[in-house]
Each structure stands twice: as C-alpha cells, then as structure tokens.
Amino acid sequence: MKFLLAALLCSTLPATTMAAERPAGIPAAEAVAKAAFGADCDMNGMPEVPMAEPDGEGYGHSVYSFSYKPDYDPNGPGVQVEVYQLFCGSGAYNIRHAFVLKKSDDESPKLAAFATPDLDYSYADEEMSKLKADPKVRGFRATGLLVNATFDLEKRTITSHAAWRGIGDAWDSGEWVFRNGDFILTRFEVDPTYGDPDPAAESYVVYDVAK
Q1: What is the DSSP letter of 198?
Q2: Which domain holds residue 124?
Q3: Which of 18, 46, 19 has its CA nearest to residue 30?
Q4: Contact predicate 64/83, CB 8 Å
Q5: Are 100 and 147 members of one domain?
Q6: Half-sphere exposure at residue 147, Cβ-oriented, CA atoms within 13 angstroms
C-alpha cells in the first residue's frame, strides 16, 4: 500500500521534478550560460544548483521538453527541443534566469536571446512619479538574462517580471512565445513611475502583437 501511494503521488508531479537527479544535459547548458554571462551567471556561488521545486520561487534549474514542426520542413520529422531554464543568481528581490535550447537538429546547446524594447521617456517631476508623455519604442535590443521568469510548457511561453526596486511600484514585464525554433517577443509592459501608494500605479503596454 505504501508503495502504491508513493507511485500515485509521483505520477502527479511535473516531469521536471519527478526525478531527484539532475538531467544529463544540465552541465553543458550551464557551461553555455556561464561562458556568456560570467559573473552575471555565477549561480550564487553554488557548486551544484538543485532542480527547482514544484511551485518554488525560482532558486533552481528546470528542464522542459517538447517537439515542433519547423516551417522549412512542415511535413518532415518533428524537431525535439529541451529548454533549460537556469538559475543564474539573485539579488534582494529579483532572480536572474538564462535559457539554453538543445534541439535535435543541433549538435550543441545554444543560448536563447530575447528581444526587448528600448524605450524613450522622460519624467514630469523630480519624484519620477509621472511621465510627460507615453513611452515610445525607439528600437529593440537583445538580452540573454530574464528576471523572475517562468515558462508555460502548454503555451510554450516565457514571461518575466522585473521589479525596479523592492516595493515593486516600478517594473517591466515581457512575454516571448516559442515559434519555429526561437522565442519571439509578443508583449511588453512597463510602469516606469515611482510612488506607493500615491500616485496610483500606471502601466503602459508598449508592444503587443495582438493589437
């Protein structure tokens, strides 16, 4: 009976946390992230980062697997993908993550890059509580580190939410969907104004492919 109960409990856990062992691809993925970011991905000095717990706060690695049909060969075999979400480090209120992709049609894992808007805005007061006008996108840049990131395997979507300071009154948040081998920016929202609780928080959706 104890064995049956344990088996039933294990069957309900996500695939990323069923095994205590680190997946075989973790060391290679870590090497890619550490080579790219150096001290920004020192993993808080841990000699071995644990796998993330279910519903945890992100202080660990996670691995997700799925397959997709590339546009260049829609009738061919599916490409198998492993997404390594790596804990790179943490501060007082933010956690940094890197994402490494290992695809069955690639010989080695590769770092994922994420497009983010480069915003132009100016404040209307010294307290930086108001803007003179809505933020404007003046271009895009790429980053390999996301803050407080989560991955929805069903939607194949990564989201991030970076607090600009501890109380979280100013922040930015993005969404990237996996399409044809890469993560594509689909939405970005920002609240660059400070002040809690007055003035009331005001955010701006500066990029949204649905609009």
Answers
A1: S
A2: 114-211
A3: 46
A4: yes
A5: no
A6: 15
